[in-house]
Amino acid sequence: MNYFMIIYAVILFFVLVPGQFLTLPSQTSEKYIISITHGIIFAIIYHFTHKIVWNATSSKDEKD
Length: 64
Hints:
The chain is an all-alpha fold. It has 3 helices and no strands. Helix 1 packs antiparallel against helix 2.
């Protein structure tokens, strides 16, 4: 098990929590719209970066 992937997902989630560093689309929007937007952003970033993080953190022994 690659614990770095768990840590990566937790950090990514923390950074993308609405209101933590930014709120998209805006703070005046409804809460569910903000949550859906941040969820989609999380999914897109995770989709395009998880293999990079996995390859960078996994050792040769774990691949067998």
